[in-house]
């Protein structure tokens, strides 16, 4: 106890000292880093931010009133939290409205099932689409199937999403969602319905973006809940043809404007060099976007705020980027690259928090091998938070995933995503799924990384090529 | 291993012997009971039945086509399974259709919430009902409130359902659902919306029956999901008035007919004396009624079937009663009492399986104290299944709960209901929530009880008064 008080006292002395005298010259000391960590562990700011976002705005589909409210909310919060610069950058977005989605099995045993439109899907005709289904385990099976098997039918793609801490089960099967409509339509399908890309067995369908191709007819695309996929399978096992009727009323509404919202804590020594801390401010529309990506918003905003409040000025600029329109195709991320191409070589690091609110358990990087010892020092500072040093093949997160193409080093503060795909893109993505204690650990890791990353003097480029 | 083989051999010898020679005179031997248990533990019949019911019919709201299909399915299955008598008895039912239910918070922070109509609710006007809410912790608080607090508002009753193995948290708060509309309307409320009576935090609203009173105006009644109740509370904590808009289109459609379906295994010695094994065949309409009460259907039907197939004829008649219209007010149960009043004194025991598909962990009874030693013998036979002897204040289950008023002894094979109210009356009540292994243990307990109960010669009446 006494020790703790002394340490805290020491920290405040150091803090005052460094903030006033050596702000632009000294790297943060281990004691300062430790104290920053502790401040983050004691702060519920990141949780309070996602609470405010989900309660006061809720779902934030690009092109809605809520999307613009979120932009305003973000600017207001960043200013309130003391960021040195706060600004927005316009992003042109396609506007899509969900409408309703209803489906039923009409044969052999009629009953309603739970579906949702995949993001970007066209509507069915008013009278709906009714057809026999043809089942495939995977998108690869659809690609290999003959047109004779598929023509005139509703393709049912039924891949199982494996649960894994890293979320790697998702990547293996999400092609069914993104490519299902194109591959099925090429062979004459009238619609595609996939088993939800999710690890739960709740009767929710998981939405998420799908794509069309210019030269392939656009067919409606939906997901059904996992219990409903199992219901359909139980019928198929009886060797009876299964028919589904699908009614969906989504609509494309042309183009709109959203904004990337940016807040900066100016660097003391290299203000034009940037550590990019990203999250995305849009969300799907059926839950309140708490895990995806309200949690990330809270974490990166609190990271800047806690560092600002501490008085320890980062040596390089911390740029919090709250991306627009991630869910509908990384639209804000692409706009950011366009707008900032000229300064991408000044981006020291980029990383994003967009994998829910689980504990961070691993620190991955993608930097030049010569910088690995410098990364190990950061890893050592993260270790007390229960974070292990990972590999050097980090992706950085969806919105920063294209930055390595421009040479930008990326980092992942890898969260435990074991239950992320239970809730992801469903009505069940709500605030109660976030554990405030885990948010504190996340924020502590981010402040640790941010303050140390801003001070790394070792060259990090060129980054290693993708394996 | 050798021992086991010998025991099995002994059983078959005994079985042949008893079935052919002493069927009407001997009580089942411990070895026979043990072998019956083992047959049930090896059989997936109870699971197969609920699988068939949920896949081939699905939800079974009284008054629907599916309800009548269920009656036909039940008769067909009971005949297939070798029951000696199979018949149906008509039950007049009120017919109610759910329609749609939509709700949104319109102030201070507009967003949609997930609601469902409570069973029996009237519709809102076409344009919906929009009003400020007034929150109460419990139905008791509503009863104590003044009309001035409530008049013109939507009453929001917000009780938390505690998780408990016995489900006792449900009974404490379900009054908010059953009595909320009447108590709120008495004081001028325009609608009532309750926090779902459920232990989960999924974004599903839990339906269930509510009641009106003849002399009180009928206001719409809905439940919102637990995450939405928390959302509303988060807004109320900001000291801002919260307004909700509610659109619901349920409708009362007059009267219809359903049927109690009955299957009997005739008693060898006292065929006119009855051990009543109950479950209900109707279900709510948003899930597939797997846990409530498809599981119970599977268990009691398999119980009769496994006993029949074993060749051990019960000394008294085993009467499997598949009740109609339990969910909407024990309508089938009341009709059974009317139809069978004259023979209720011949009902040796009654019990129902209607609490999901968890392991049975306790054996409760309500019999004359003088019969407790005989009950202990049954408890001893249940003990190898992990079942402890409980109290002598059993309720027997919803559909047999009025039989003690007529002197009928009741029993509860108490299931672990720890997660029952996570799924109860939601779209999430689907087959995947049932563990086939637990269904086997349930069925083993029921066959054990049934065969021994049919042979109990001790007088069980008069039963003790309710505490």
UniProtKB/TrEMBL annotation, chains A, B:
Q: Does the keyword Zinc-finger apply?
A: no
Key word Protease present in the record? yes
Q: Which Pfam families match?
A: Peptidase_M28 (PF04389)
UniProt KW keywords = Carboxypeptidase, Endoplasmic reticulum, Glycoprotein, Golgi apparatus, Hydrolase, Lysosome, Metal-binding, Metalloprotease, Protease, Secreted, Signal, Zinc, Zymogen
* Oligomeric and partner information: Homodimer. The monomeric form is inactive while the homodimer is active.
**Residue spans crossing the bilayer:** none
Q: Which residues form the Peptidase M28 domain?
A: 260-448
The residues the entry assigns to the signal sequence are 1-23
Q: Name one GO cellular component term.
A: extracellular region
Entry's Gene Ontology BP terms: proteolysis
Main subcellular location of this protein, as a coarse class: endoplasmic reticulum
Localization of this protein? Endoplasmic reticulum; Golgi apparatus; Lysosome; Secreted
Identify this protein by name: Carboxypeptidase Q
Q: Which InterPro entries match?
A: CPQ, Peptidase_M28
Single GO MF annotation = metallodipeptidase activity
């Amino acid at each position: 106890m006494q020790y703790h008080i002394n340490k805290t006292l020491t920290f405040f002395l150091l803090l005052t000292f460094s903030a006033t005298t050596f702000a632009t010259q000294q790297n943060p000391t281990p004691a300062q880093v430790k104290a920053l960590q502790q401040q983050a562990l004691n702060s519920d700011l990141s949780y309070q931010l996602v609470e405010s976002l989900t309660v006061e705005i809720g779902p934030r589909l690009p092109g809605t009133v809520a999307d613009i409210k979120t932009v305003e909310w973000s600017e207001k919060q960043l200013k309130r939290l003391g960021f040195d610069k706060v600004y927005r950058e316009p992003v042109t977005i396609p506007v899509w409205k969900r409408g309703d989605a209803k489906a039923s099995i009409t044969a052999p045993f009629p009953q309603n099932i739970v579906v949702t439109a995949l993001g970007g899907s066209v509507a069915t005709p008013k009278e709906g689409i009714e057809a026999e289904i043809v089942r495939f385990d995977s998108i690869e099976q659809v690609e290999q199937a003959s047109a004779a098997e598929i023509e005139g039918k509703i393709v049912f793609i039924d891949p199982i999403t494996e649960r894994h801490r890293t979320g790697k089960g998702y990547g293996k099967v999400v092609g069914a969602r993104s490519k299902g409509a194109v591959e099925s339509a090429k062979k004459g399908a009238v619609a595609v319905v996939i088993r939800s890309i999710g690890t739960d067995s709740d009767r929710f369908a998981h939405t998420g973006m799908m794509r069309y191709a210019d030269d392939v007819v656009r067919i409606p695309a939906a997901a059904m809940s996992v219990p409903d996929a199992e219901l359909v399978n139980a019928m198929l096992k009886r060797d009876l043809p299964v028919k589904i009727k699908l009614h969906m009323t989504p609509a494309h509404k042309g183009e709109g404007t959203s904004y990337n919202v940016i807040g900066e804590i100016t660097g003391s020594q290299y203000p034009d060099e940037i550590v990019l801390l990203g999250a995305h401010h849009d969300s799907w529309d059926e839950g309140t976007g708490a895990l995806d990506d309200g949690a990330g918003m809270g974490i990166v905003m609190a990271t800047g705020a806690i560092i600002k409040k501490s008085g320890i000025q980062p040596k390089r600029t911390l740029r919090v980027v709250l991306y627009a329109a991630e869910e509908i195709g990384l639209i804000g991320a692409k706009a950011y690259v366009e707008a900032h191409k000229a300064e991408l070589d000044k981006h020291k690091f980029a990383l994003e928090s967009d994998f829910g609110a689980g504990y961070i358990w691993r620190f991955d990087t993608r930097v030049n091998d010569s910088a690995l010892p410098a990364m190990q020092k950061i890893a050592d500072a993260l270790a007390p938070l229960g974070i292990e040093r990972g590999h050097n093949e980090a992706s950085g997160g969806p919105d920063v995933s294209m930055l390595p193409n421009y040479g930008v080093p990326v980092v992942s503060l890898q969260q435990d995503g074991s239950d992320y795909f239970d809730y992801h893109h469903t009505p069940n993505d709500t605030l109660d799924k976030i554990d405030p204690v885990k948010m504190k650990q996340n924020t502590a890791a981010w402040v640790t990384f941010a303050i140390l990353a801003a001070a790394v003097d070792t060259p990090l480029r060129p980054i290693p090529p993708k394996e």
